[in-house]
Amino acid sequence: MNATNKLKSFGSFFLALSAPILATTALLRYNEIKSFYNL
User: Which residues of the chain have pLDDT under 70?
Assistant: First the structure.
C-alpha cells in the first residue's frame, strides 16, 4: 500500500468517524440557539 492509498483510507475513516459527532454537535447548537431565541 502506497502513501496515497493509505491517506485516502485514513481520510474516509476519519470522515465516517467525525460525521456523527459533527451532526450531534450541530443539532445541540441548533437546539441552544432555538431555545435562546424563544425567550
Answer: 1, 39
What pLDDT, on the 0 to 100 scale, is given for residue 1?
61
Residue 2: its pLDDT value, please? 85
In angstroms, the CA 1 to CA 35 distance is 50
Gap between the Cα atoms of 33 and 39, Å rounded: 10
Kindly state the cell numbers that stand for 5: 492509498
SS3 for 1? coil
**What are the structural domain ranges in the chain?**
1-39
